[in-house]
Design brief:
This protein has nine helices and eight strands. The protein has 209 residues and is α+β, with helices and mostly antiparallel strands. The chain starts with a helix and ends with a helix. It binds coenzyme A.
Length: 209
């Protein structure tokens, strides 16, 4: 009976997770996943929006994002929430190092039992290159493959974002294709057109990593 309700609850979450960020703000706040250096908490807390806004306005942080221009032009938290609602269409996980909020991961564009898109934003630059991204990625992918039962997770990034590409390859993603000139990024102090590298990992590949 308990298994039946667990499965039912999972299915309901799966249906909602593809469409409604509000579900995760409100109902998704109970899930906590722990690594050694960091822990993840599902949902975005109201108290962290001012920090996300501050970081989204830092060119060094958002320079390669497909929505870099919009992020840098954000005026207030209401505008930030509108942007987040557009880009984050599935579960979002705040990343904490001890008690410090440093960024978030997310799974979006969920297609039932099939694919979803992974994003990781370590928004506090002090935590780049500290090994926290690997743990946050593994925990989020475990959720995608084991809980949401996805068969493939994809991601995209700018072809100029060498740090991210190297990191994703280390994490087990492989390059799938390049979409040429489809995002505007802020590279070397100027706005330029960049291609998008699409990367992916299947459930079998994740289990092998
Ligand atoms: C991209 C991101 C997740 C990577 O996490 P990280 O903890 O900084 O990554 P790591 O240090 O573990 O790995 C990055 C690798 O790239 C290397 N690297 C760093 N800067 C580099 C550069 N300019 N060119 C090439 N390689 C670079 C590092 O040396 C490291 O390789 P190594 O382990 O062989 O030494 C993190 O920096 C981040 O969230 N940045 C801001 C948001 C963002 O851009 N997210 C990705 C959106 S697609």
């Amino acid at each position: 009976m308990r298994n039946f309700f667990n499965q039912l609850f999972r299915n309901i979450r799966k249906i909602f997770s593809g469409y409604n960020l509000l579900w995760h703000f409100l109902a998704g706040t109970d899930r906590i996943m722990r690594g050694n250096k960091i822990w993840l908490k599902e949902g975005l807390s109201e108290k962290n929006f001012p920090l996300i806004l501050k970081w989204f306005r830092e060119s060094e942080v958002v320079q390669y994002f497909s929505f870099a221009k919009r992020a840098l032009a954000l005026k207030n938290i209401d505008e930030l929430k509108i942007l987040l609602k557009e880009i984050e269409t599935g579960p979002v996980f705040e990343i904490y190092c001890k008690d410090t909020f440093i960024g978030y991961t997310s799974l979006s564009s969920i297609r039932e039992k099939s694919e979803c898109e992974f994003t990781i934003f370590i928004l506090d630059k002090n935590y780049w290159g500290k090994g926290v991204s690997g743990e946050a990625t593994v925990l989020t992918l475990s959720y995608a493959f084991d809980e949401l039962e996805m068969s493939k997770v994809t991601l995209d990034t700018s072809e100029f974002h060498q740090r991210a590409i190297k990191f994703y390859e280390k994490a087990g993603f492989r390059r799938a294709r390049l979409i040429s000139k489809d995002r505007t990024i802020f590279h070397d102090g100027k706005w330029i057109l960049s291609g998008t590298v699409v990367m992916e990992m299947t459930r079998e590949e994740f289990k092998r990593v």
